[in-house]
Specification:
The chain is of the alpha/beta class. The protein has 2 domains: about 5-95 and about 180-265, Rossmann fold; about 105-175, 2-Layer Sandwich (Alpha-Beta Plaits). Helix content is about 35%, strand content about 20%. The protein has helices spanning about 5-15, 45-55, 70-75, 110-120, 145-160, 180-190, 205-215, 235-240, 250-265, and strands at about 20-25, 60-65, 80-85, 90, 100, 125-130, 135-140, 165, 170-175, 195-200, 220-230, 245.
Length: about 270
Protein backbone atom coordinates (compact mmCIF):
# COMPACT_ATOMS: atom_id res chain seq x y z
CA UNK A 1 0.00 0.00 0.00
CA UNK A 2 2.80 2.40 0.88
CA UNK A 3 4.30 2.16 -2.61
CA UNK A 4 1.02 2.66 -4.41
CA UNK A 5 0.77 4.82 -7.51
CA UNK A 6 -0.84 7.59 -5.48
CA UNK A 7 2.00 7.61 -2.94
CA UNK A 8 4.63 7.47 -5.68
CA UNK A 9 3.10 10.51 -7.35
CA UNK A 10 2.97 12.45 -4.09
CA UNK A 11 6.59 11.57 -3.34
CA UNK A 12 7.64 12.76 -6.78
CA UNK A 13 5.98 16.13 -6.19
CA UNK A 14 7.55 16.44 -2.73
CA UNK A 15 10.98 15.69 -4.18
CA UNK A 16 10.57 18.19 -7.01
CA UNK A 17 9.36 20.89 -4.59
CA UNK A 18 11.53 20.02 -1.59
CA UNK A 19 12.64 23.64 -1.14
CA UNK A 20 9.02 24.72 -0.69
CA UNK A 21 7.66 21.55 0.91
CA UNK A 22 6.72 20.92 4.54
CA UNK A 23 6.08 17.79 6.60
CA UNK A 24 3.78 18.18 9.63
CA UNK A 25 3.17 15.53 12.28
CA UNK A 26 0.70 14.96 15.07
CA UNK A 27 2.27 13.05 17.98
CA UNK A 28 -0.11 10.82 19.98
CA UNK A 29 -1.52 8.03 17.88
CA UNK A 30 0.56 9.12 14.88
CA UNK A 31 4.22 9.09 15.87
CA UNK A 32 3.44 7.11 19.00
CA UNK A 33 1.05 4.40 20.10
CA UNK A 34 -1.77 5.31 22.46
CA UNK A 35 -1.18 4.22 26.05
CA UNK A 36 -3.15 4.45 29.28
CA UNK A 37 -0.56 6.73 30.91
CA UNK A 38 0.22 9.74 28.67
CA UNK A 39 3.49 10.34 30.53
CA UNK A 40 4.79 6.94 29.43
CA UNK A 41 4.26 7.51 25.72
CA UNK A 42 7.31 7.61 23.45
CA UNK A 43 7.74 7.71 19.66
CA UNK A 44 7.64 4.34 17.94
CA UNK A 45 11.09 2.88 17.18
CA UNK A 46 12.70 4.55 14.20
CA UNK A 47 10.35 7.56 14.04
CA UNK A 48 12.77 10.12 15.47
CA UNK A 49 15.59 8.85 13.27
CA UNK A 50 13.38 8.97 10.17
CA UNK A 51 12.36 12.56 10.89
CA UNK A 52 16.01 13.45 11.53
CA UNK A 53 16.91 12.16 8.07
CA UNK A 54 13.98 13.90 6.38
CA UNK A 55 14.10 17.32 8.06
CA UNK A 56 17.27 18.66 6.37
CA UNK A 57 15.89 17.77 2.95
CA UNK A 58 12.74 19.91 3.01
CA UNK A 59 11.84 23.49 3.83
CA UNK A 60 9.81 22.85 6.98
CA UNK A 61 9.37 19.98 9.40
CA UNK A 62 7.12 20.43 12.42
CA UNK A 63 5.42 18.53 15.22
CA UNK A 64 1.92 19.92 15.79
CA UNK A 65 0.50 18.39 18.94
CA UNK A 66 -1.84 18.71 21.87
CA UNK A 67 1.17 17.99 24.09
CA UNK A 68 3.07 20.76 25.85
CA UNK A 69 6.21 21.87 23.99
CA UNK A 70 8.34 20.86 26.99
CA UNK A 71 7.22 17.26 26.43
CA UNK A 72 7.92 17.39 22.69
CA UNK A 73 11.40 18.81 23.30
CA UNK A 74 12.42 15.65 25.15
CA UNK A 75 12.09 13.69 21.93
CA UNK A 76 12.61 16.21 19.13
CA UNK A 77 14.43 19.16 20.70
CA UNK A 78 17.75 18.10 19.18
CA UNK A 79 16.35 18.05 15.65
CA UNK A 80 15.93 20.93 13.16
CA UNK A 81 12.14 20.88 13.53
CA UNK A 82 9.60 23.40 14.78
CA UNK A 83 7.46 22.39 17.73
CA UNK A 84 3.86 23.54 18.19
CA UNK A 85 2.29 22.39 21.44
CA UNK A 86 -1.16 22.61 22.97
CA UNK A 87 -2.73 23.09 19.53
CA UNK A 88 -0.53 26.10 18.84
CA UNK A 89 -0.89 27.86 22.19
CA UNK A 90 2.83 27.12 22.65
CA UNK A 91 5.64 26.99 20.11
CA UNK A 92 9.41 27.14 19.81
CA UNK A 93 11.33 29.84 17.97
CA UNK A 94 14.43 29.24 15.88
CA UNK A 95 16.54 29.11 19.06
CA UNK A 96 14.34 26.53 20.79
CA UNK A 97 12.86 29.05 23.23
CA UNK A 98 9.27 28.30 24.23
CA UNK A 99 6.76 31.01 23.33
CA UNK A 100 3.28 31.14 24.92
CA UNK A 101 0.40 32.82 23.13
CA UNK A 102 -0.33 35.94 25.25
CA UNK A 103 -4.08 35.62 24.65
CA UNK A 104 -4.27 32.35 26.60
CA UNK A 105 -2.18 33.41 29.62
CA UNK A 106 -5.11 35.10 31.44
CA UNK A 107 -6.93 31.74 31.40
CA UNK A 108 -4.26 29.88 33.38
CA UNK A 109 -6.03 30.46 36.77
CA UNK A 110 -9.26 28.98 35.39
CA UNK A 111 -7.38 25.94 34.06
CA UNK A 112 -5.72 25.50 37.47
CA UNK A 113 -9.10 25.67 39.19
CA UNK A 114 -10.69 23.10 36.88
CA UNK A 115 -7.73 20.75 37.30
CA UNK A 116 -8.12 20.90 41.10
CA UNK A 117 -11.88 20.38 40.83
CA UNK A 118 -11.37 17.38 38.56
CA UNK A 119 -8.97 15.77 41.02
CA UNK A 120 -11.47 16.32 43.83
CA UNK A 121 -14.74 15.51 42.05
CA UNK A 122 -14.05 12.74 39.57
CA UNK A 123 -13.61 9.00 39.91
CA UNK A 124 -9.99 8.01 40.68
CA UNK A 125 -9.97 5.99 37.44
CA UNK A 126 -10.11 9.26 35.50
CA UNK A 127 -6.59 10.43 34.68
CA UNK A 128 -6.34 14.20 35.06
CA UNK A 129 -3.55 15.59 32.86
CA UNK A 130 -2.84 19.20 33.79
CA UNK A 131 -0.91 20.86 30.92
CA UNK A 132 -0.74 24.41 32.32
CA UNK A 133 -2.76 25.91 29.46
CA UNK A 134 -5.33 23.09 29.34
CA UNK A 135 -6.47 20.08 31.32
CA UNK A 136 -7.24 16.71 29.73
CA UNK A 137 -9.52 14.16 31.36
CA UNK A 138 -8.71 10.64 30.15
CA UNK A 139 -11.35 7.94 30.64
CA UNK A 140 -9.57 5.13 28.74
CA UNK A 141 -9.46 2.95 31.85
CA UNK A 142 -13.10 3.75 32.66
CA UNK A 143 -15.00 3.98 29.34
CA UNK A 144 -18.31 3.51 31.15
CA UNK A 145 -17.82 7.00 32.61
CA UNK A 146 -17.76 8.71 29.21
CA UNK A 147 -21.20 10.32 29.50
CA UNK A 148 -20.46 11.50 33.03
CA UNK A 149 -17.12 13.03 31.99
CA UNK A 150 -18.61 14.77 28.98
CA UNK A 151 -21.43 16.20 31.12
CA UNK A 152 -18.98 17.33 33.82
CA UNK A 153 -16.79 19.02 31.21
CA UNK A 154 -19.79 20.75 29.67
CA UNK A 155 -20.75 22.18 33.07
CA UNK A 156 -17.20 23.30 33.91
CA UNK A 157 -16.69 24.82 30.48
CA UNK A 158 -19.83 26.91 30.96
CA UNK A 159 -18.90 27.83 34.54
CA UNK A 160 -15.38 29.01 33.73
CA UNK A 161 -15.80 30.18 30.15
CA UNK A 162 -13.65 27.40 28.71
CA UNK A 163 -13.97 25.22 25.62
CA UNK A 164 -14.32 21.42 25.71
CA UNK A 165 -12.47 19.50 23.00
CA UNK A 166 -13.25 15.75 22.61
CA UNK A 167 -10.65 13.22 21.50
CA UNK A 168 -9.72 9.55 21.77
CA UNK A 169 -11.21 8.55 25.14
CA UNK A 170 -10.47 12.04 26.45
CA UNK A 171 -12.06 15.46 26.82
CA UNK A 172 -9.80 18.48 27.07
CA UNK A 173 -10.77 21.81 28.61
CA UNK A 174 -8.91 24.75 27.12
CA UNK A 175 -9.17 28.54 26.84
CA UNK A 176 -11.93 29.86 24.56
CA UNK A 177 -9.32 31.45 22.32
CA UNK A 178 -9.54 29.91 18.86
CA UNK A 179 -6.26 28.07 18.56
CA UNK A 180 -6.13 24.77 16.75
CA UNK A 181 -3.94 22.82 14.37
CA UNK A 182 -5.66 24.48 11.45
CA UNK A 183 -4.38 27.86 12.62
CA UNK A 184 -0.84 26.47 12.84
CA UNK A 185 -1.02 24.97 9.36
CA UNK A 186 -2.46 28.19 7.92
CA UNK A 187 0.46 30.21 9.30
CA UNK A 188 3.22 27.77 8.48
CA UNK A 189 2.25 26.85 4.93
CA UNK A 190 1.83 30.37 3.53
CA UNK A 191 5.10 30.22 1.60
CA UNK A 192 4.92 26.52 0.76
CA UNK A 193 3.74 24.88 -2.46
CA UNK A 194 3.61 21.37 -1.01
CA UNK A 195 2.64 19.97 2.38
CA UNK A 196 2.33 16.52 3.92
CA UNK A 197 0.27 16.10 7.08
CA UNK A 198 0.12 13.06 9.37
CA UNK A 199 -2.63 12.66 11.99
CA UNK A 200 -5.16 10.32 13.54
CA UNK A 201 -7.71 12.12 15.72
CA UNK A 202 -10.42 14.77 15.81
CA UNK A 203 -7.89 17.44 16.75
CA UNK A 204 -6.26 16.95 13.34
CA UNK A 205 -9.43 17.74 11.39
CA UNK A 206 -8.89 21.54 11.33
CA UNK A 207 -5.45 21.03 9.78
CA UNK A 208 -6.75 18.58 7.19
CA UNK A 209 -9.61 20.93 6.31
CA UNK A 210 -7.26 23.91 5.93
CA UNK A 211 -5.08 21.96 3.51
CA UNK A 212 -8.09 20.81 1.52
CA UNK A 213 -9.41 24.37 1.25
CA UNK A 214 -5.98 25.67 0.19
CA UNK A 215 -5.71 23.05 -2.56
CA UNK A 216 -9.11 23.98 -3.96
CA UNK A 217 -8.23 27.69 -3.90
CA UNK A 218 -4.64 27.48 -5.15
CA UNK A 219 -3.89 25.27 -8.17
CA UNK A 220 -0.15 25.64 -7.50
CA UNK A 221 -0.43 24.10 -4.02
CA UNK A 222 -0.59 20.38 -3.34
CA UNK A 223 -1.11 18.45 -0.11
CA UNK A 224 -0.87 14.78 0.76
CA UNK A 225 -2.54 13.73 4.00
CA UNK A 226 -1.84 10.51 5.85
CA UNK A 227 -4.04 9.08 8.58
CA UNK A 228 -3.17 6.42 11.12
CA UNK A 229 -5.93 3.91 11.88
CA UNK A 230 -7.95 4.92 14.91
CA UNK A 231 -10.81 2.60 15.93
CA UNK A 232 -12.35 5.23 18.24
CA UNK A 233 -12.65 8.47 16.25
CA UNK A 234 -10.82 7.59 13.05
CA UNK A 235 -13.77 7.39 10.66
CA UNK A 236 -14.06 11.16 10.52
CA UNK A 237 -10.32 11.52 9.92
CA UNK A 238 -10.29 8.87 7.18
CA UNK A 239 -12.71 10.96 5.13
CA UNK A 240 -10.07 13.71 4.83
CA UNK A 241 -6.86 11.77 4.09
CA UNK A 242 -5.27 10.22 1.02
CA UNK A 243 -3.79 7.22 2.76
CA UNK A 244 -4.57 5.36 6.00
CA UNK A 245 -1.80 3.40 7.73
CA UNK A 246 -2.58 0.52 10.06
CA UNK A 247 -0.49 1.80 12.98
CA UNK A 248 2.21 4.35 13.88
CA UNK A 249 5.00 1.89 13.12
CA UNK A 250 3.97 1.93 9.45
CA UNK A 251 4.86 5.61 9.33
CA UNK A 252 8.58 4.87 9.61
CA UNK A 253 9.09 3.09 6.27
CA UNK A 254 6.98 5.76 4.55
CA UNK A 255 9.22 8.52 5.92
CA UNK A 256 12.31 6.55 4.98
CA UNK A 257 10.94 6.21 1.46
CA UNK A 258 10.26 9.95 1.34
CA UNK A 259 13.82 10.77 2.43
CA UNK A 260 15.27 8.43 -0.22
CA UNK A 261 13.06 9.87 -2.93
CA UNK A 262 13.97 13.46 -2.11
CA UNK A 263 17.67 12.65 -1.74
CA UNK A 264 17.70 10.94 -5.13
CA UNK A 265 16.29 14.00 -6.86
CA UNK A 266 18.67 16.37 -5.04
CA UNK A 267 21.75 14.41 -6.06
CA UNK A 268 20.90 14.31 -9.77
Amino acid sequence: MIESQRVTGALRIAAERAQTCGFFFDFDGTLSSIQTDPAAVTPVPGAVEAIADLAPLVHTTAIVSGRPVSFLQRHFGHLPVRLYGLYGMESTDEHGTIWTDPEVIPWIPAIDTVARQAMADLDPDILVEHKRLSVALHYRTAPHLRDHIEHWCHLKAAEHGLTALPGRMVVELKPPVRRDKGDVITRTTTDLTCAWYFGDDLGDLPALQVLDKRMHADPDFTAFCVGVHNPETGDQVADWVDLVLDNPADLVPLLQLAARSISTVRTR
